[in-house]
Records
---
Amino acid sequence: GQNIDQPTEMTATEGAIVQINCTYQTSGFNGLFWYQQHAGEAPTFLSYNVLDGLEEKGRFSSFLSRSKGYSYLLLKELQMKDSASYLCAVRDSGNAGNMLTFGGGTRLMVKP
Amino acid sequence: DAGVIQSPRHEVTEMGQEVTLRCKPISGHDYLFWYRQTMMRGLELLIYFNNNVPIDDSGMPEDRFSAKMPNASFSTLKIQPSEPRDSAVYFCASSQYLQGSNQPQHFGDGTRLSIL
């Protein structure tokens, strides 16, 4: 099985930088995804990591350390519209295909 | 391109009634997933299909839940009889999969189900 942990809530200020951490335990790691979910809406794909290191996409970056079972999502130049839940999801190589296990999500509140 | 399409968007019904949720995946995607999301339990995988065949239904809570995928463009999730604890948002997602690829799952807008 898999165990995925992320903080329940975080608060940050508009224009600042915030880092959302995710730790996981899996028998056969095969990729980690970050999704954004605004209240009342569907999760939308943000980023993917399968090798160690940093992946950058505009204001968003995601980091992975496979040896530590650790990832983070970094949001720069925070905007009010970034207030949402951020879901970490892990794909296990033992699964038959593209099955993901999701963490409980981190609700980020951006304040003016 | 059209995304994953779910219907209905909202459903309110009385306990004991049959509920049918529908999903049309993105054309060309060979995987389809049904999830349930609640505040208490987060996003839980119920069942998923590959090429219309159910692969893992271990997340289906009990025999009251059933899912079918009669063809590549349509799937249903049924609850019969429904109970108040089934109230949740139900998401359908689809994806392509290549070993080691970054093909994400694409989610529909969900069905908000309330059982009275």
---
Amino acid sequence: ETGVTQTPRHLVMGMTNKKSLKCEQHLGHNAMYWYKQSAKKPLELMFVYNFKEQTENNSVPSRFSPECPNSSHLFLHLHTLQPEDSALYLCASSPWGGQGASGNTIYFGEGSWLTVV
Amino acid sequence: GQNIDQPTEMTATEGAIVQINCTYQTSGFNGLFWYQQHAGEAPTFLSYNVLDGLEEKGRFSSFLSRSKGYSYLLLKELQMKDSASYLCAVENSNNDMRFGAGTRLTVKP
């Protein structure tokens, strides 16, 4: 139990579907992140929210839409995805934004396995 | 550019010692992290180095040389449960965290 909970753990969706991934952190952190992990590739940072404000968007396609209603919750809304978007999507949190700064350790959730068919 | 390189796979024997290397080239440096990730699970924090030298934490140690852009994770007295992927991550001067692709370690009896 890392203190970061993601649902659903597994999701299969068609290319015309709309679905959402949910993340909740119970650590009192102020920063939350979405990462994409594909097979044999490095973790890719997608979005960063610091005190509910989006501070980073690493050229992610608009078919991925994040939402951060408060410091404890983060969503990733998905629509018209492509098969190549199939991957493990990891949510993470840290005490403050500026990931990793001076030991600002990132804590990951278990991930949501997404398959686009 | 920014690169973080680590071997793709390694195999070691239970009870032995294994060293997983990581080399990096980043725009500035604010620290290096090692994470462990078991198959199907979340990455979990192992260690953090910001100064040169060795940080020891039980069976795991992590070393950093900033001038060489080099780190290693040393695992002693290997156990079967240590079979996992080990991710090297570097924070650059913009506070961006970049991850390597991970090293998949298999521990054999």
